[in-house]
Model the fold of this input.
Amino acid sequence: MAFAGRAPSTRSLIARSPGRLTKATAEHWVSRWRDCLPPPPDAAPRAERLGRDIARYRSLLVDVAAVEDEIEVLLARTDGQILTTLPGVATNRAAAFAAHSLPIARFPDAEHLYSATGLAPAMYESATIRRRGRISRQGLAEHRDALMGIAWGLSLYSPTFAERDAELRARGMAPIQARVALARNACRLIYRMLVTQQPFDEEAYRRGRLSRGR
Done:
């Protein structure tokens, strides 16, 4: 961005913009640019400071890309790589959950894995009362957040999970409540995938869910 200088032409703006910019959108922003107030007296120092900020931002992007490449290589050496076959679950989400869940043999079943995330309801018992409370929040918050992130990704990119999400919300659940419920379904699926090392199959999962009635 230039604090001092003339507005670009529509053609120039389209040529220099990242992504796809339509002519109508470019004309709109060129017009807005031309209608802006005159440059402030300190336009040059402002532009210089902004330039330094952009340089730092680009440097961070390079560092982030390098770390993501390292994560991809490390994940490929583990059983957690199979989780990248889930819709909406790329390397980072798969690695975040696998880091706290592997080796999967530590958990005798999916329910134990789900409890370890802290999303399972806390149980309150006495001599006469036994009731379920809110999520227990046991375990690491990073483990819990990783599973919630996977549930969110599935609700966006898996038709079966998206339908389930719509069903839960239609029952009156708040979005966060529905996501916790989806996380339990996702945990069962993830556990089976980590044990069998079979990639995700949308149709097979849909058939299995319908046969179980959940």
About this structure: The mean pLDDT is 89. The chain is about 65% helix and 5% strand. Residues 79 and 194 are 6 Å apart (CA to CA). The first strand starts at residue 121 and ends at 125.
